[in-house]
Amino acid sequence: MLAEKIGRVVLEALRDGVGFFALLRQAAGRWRALARWPVRQVFYKQIYFTGIEALGAISVIATLAGIAITTQIVSLAGADKALTSRIMLWTIVRELGPLFAAIVVTARSSSATASELAGMSIRGELDSLRRLGIAPLDYLVVPRVAGITVAIMAVTVYFQFIAIITGFAFTALVYQSSFFTPLADVVSILSLHEVSISLLKGLVFGLVISGISCLYGLRVQHSITAVPRAATGAVMRNLIAVFFLDGVISYVAFF
Amino acid sequence: MRGPLGPVDLILSAGETAKVIVESRAVAEELFGILAGQLLPASGRIELFGQDPAALSETARLDLLARVGFVPEDGGLISNLKAWENLILPATYHRGESPAALESRVSALAKRLGVPAASLATLLGKLPDQLTLAERRQVALLRAALMKPSLLVCDFLHAGLDRAAGEALLKAAATVAEPAPAILHLCPDDAVSARISADRSVRLGAEGP
Fold first, then answer.
1. Residue in A38, A120, A131 nearest the CB of B93
2. Rounded-to-integer distance, Cα A244 and Cα A46, Å
3. Which of B36, B79, B89 sits opposite A130 (nearest CB)?
4. Domain coordinates of chain A in residue numbers?
5. Is A133 on the interface with B (CB under 8 A)?
6. If you ran DSSP here, which 8-state letter would residue B44 be given?
7. Does the residue B133 lie in any domain?
């Protein structure tokens, strides 16, 4: 019974993987659709919904995470130590920035994208687009994949910036230590490698979250009950994929 | 359950109007789907401008469909776009026309089709869910007309509306079709359909039980 259940889960994951790569390959081949005005409007809207509208939640989470992490590090290593800055850099830039940005975007945009596309599919709007001579892949998938990916990368950088600034500001306030010294340490330690890996994570998470969300949204059958299932399925699959890929990239890049 | 569509033979040339009187909504939906290449006929063949849409590649079929103005029974509007964005979608997508340049064309077109300017302004700021059935079809008709289609396919254009609204839409569709494009009406068997002036008229039902 357990083996059967595990087998089914593995098969589903494989089916999702095949579907995801096929969708992403097709979308990559059609990126020129972004040159068309209506497709660009969808792209801009996606950046707005995924990136700009998420800034409030990201700011709060980044502030709280920055305070919590610096408090732990300072209690371990002490304030005004180079090690504090180094650990801060490792945790925020390497791990938490890309991961938290991806989690927030998954919670907000993955479910929204999957349910929106599922609803459109059920209402026959994909056929409506085809009757207008417009490929759903070009109009619906390409701008969402591009928009979510760009937004996640920007949100990741924003999270890191806010978490580090507020973390050190809190330490300076509570422990009466310097605000600028650890900040200068972070800037001097920060390497191109760290930044590149962080952005790579943002890029990979963006492609995965957008691709899986579109896949779950577009493959629903003609039943309204499929919409919430598509949304929750996309969120769960994205969370698992993001944590798994975060581990893989961190291992390859920093081990 | 219904069987496949009954046999029907119809050739439509440029500038002609034809009406297909169908026995049910299901038959109209099936024929509409076949015309758009989304369904395959059980037997026989449909050609649009000399090509079978179902036999073409996805890209070629989409290019072919862009030459046809479809006005579906429910309007076929995209739910997350306002009526104005729906209206200009194909023109901006296929022809790269700017929304600002389209404003004057839409106003002129609406005037030609008998849509009052005041009601048009209110109409175009709404989402499809906020429109009445007649308004959704009106937007779909304007959208099709804006693309100057070679063929206009209207699915139950007057059905489900009060007589005045239905006849106004039929009149607008006839105006869109002037001077050259062909027009194909899929319509129910009712008194208003009987009054649609057409060069050809056929009846279509389903075979089998």
1. A38
2. 25
3. B36
4. 31-254
5. yes
6. S
7. yes
Residue B51 neighbours by CB under 8 Å, 6+ apart? B60, B64
Backbone angles phi, psi at B116, to 5 degrees: -60, 140
Does the residue B6 lie in any domain?
no
Q: Find chain A residues with C-beta within 8 A of B98's C-beta.
A: 37
CB contact under 8 A, A127 and B36: yes
ipTM: 0.90
Mean pLDDT, consecutive 10-residue stretches, chain A (255 aa), reads 85 88 93 95 96 94 92 80 83 90 93 94 93 95 97 95 92 85 85 91 96 94 84 93 93 85
pLDDT for A69-127, tens place per residue? Answer: 988 888 887 766 778 888 888 888 888 999 999 999 999 999 999 999 999 999 999 99
Mutate one of B39, B64, B78 to test the A interface: name it (highest A CB count within 10 A).
B78
Chain CA centroid to CA A190, Å: 22
Strand partners, B78: none
- B44 belongs to a structural domain: yes
Distance (Å, whole) CA B199 – CA B196: 10
Q: Residues of chain B whose pLDDT is less than 50?
A: 1-2, 209
CA angle A153, A233, A129 (to 5 degrees): 75
How far is the alpha carbon of A33 from chain B, nearest alpha carbon, in Å? Answer: 9
3-state secondary structure labels for all residues of A22-47 = HHHHHHHHCHHHHHCHHHHHHHHHHH
What residue numbers bound the domain in which B91 lies?
17-204
Per the structure block, which two tokens stand in for B63? 């290019």
Q: Do residue A135 and residue B70 have CB atoms under 8 angstroms apart?
A: no
Convert B107-119 into a string of H (helix), E (strand) and C (coil).
HHHHHHCCCCHHH
Say yes or no: A222 contacts chain B, CB-CB below 8 A.
no
Distance from CA of A100 to the nearest CA of B (A): 29
**Interface contact A131-B80, CB threshold 8 A:** no
Q: Do B77 and A128 contact (CB within 8 A), yes or no? A: yes
Return the residue of A nearest to B36 by Cα: A131
Burial status of residue A40 (CB atoms within 10 A of its CB: 0-12, 13-18, 19 or more): middle
Whole-angstrom Cα distance, residue B66 to residue B72? 15
Domain count for chain B, please give it.
Answer: 1
Contact B78 A128 (CB under 8 A): yes
* Closest residue by Cα to residue A110 from A42, A43, A41, A50: A50
What CATH number should be reported for the domain holding residue B198? 3.40.50.300
Within a domain: residue B147?
Answer: yes
